[in-house]
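Each record in this resource describes a single protein on a pair of labelled lines. An example record follows, reproduced without changes.
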Amino acid sequence: FLFWRLEGKPPYRKWCQEYDLLYCTMEKKATGQRKYWTLTLPNNRSIMMSEVINMDIHAYWRAVLRQDREKLADFFWENAKVCWHNTNECFTVPEFIRANCDYPGVWEGKVERIEMQENLVITVTHVSNKERTVSCHAVTFLHLRDGKIQRADEYWSDDGEPPRWRQDLHI
C-alpha cells in the first residue's frame, strides 16, 4: 500500500493504478534530517510517507495468511515480540510463527485500512477461512525500526451478529 522501499524513483504510478487513483503526484521533501515523500490523492488529501517506514505491509499480511514461515521471519527483528491482547499472550518471533503457521485451515484476507505515524503502522485486516465459516478482524499495531517489526500488538475479534441484548434496543 503506502510502504514501498523508497529507492530511486518511487513507484507511485503503480500504487495509483493499483488503487484506481487516476491522478496523484508524489514529491520528495526534506524536513530536518528526515526525508519524506508526500503523496497527493485526487481529493487533494496529502499523505506524508517517511523513508523510515519501508516495509511492504501487504507482503507481510500475505505471508501471515499463507502461513509462510520463511517469509514471515524476514519481517521481524530477532528479539521482536508479538502480543495478542485478547488472549493475554505475548510471543517471541519463533513462537509467533509457530502459533500462526500451525493454526489449522487455509486462510485468506484483505487489508482494509492502513494508518501510519512515525515508526508505527496500524492495520485493520479482514481474515476468513476458505470455507467462509470463520470470519474475523484483526487490528494490528506494528512498531517498526529500520523497516522491520520490533513489536506487534494485535487485537482479534470474531465477526458476527450483535448480541441479543443490543438487538433488543433496536438501535
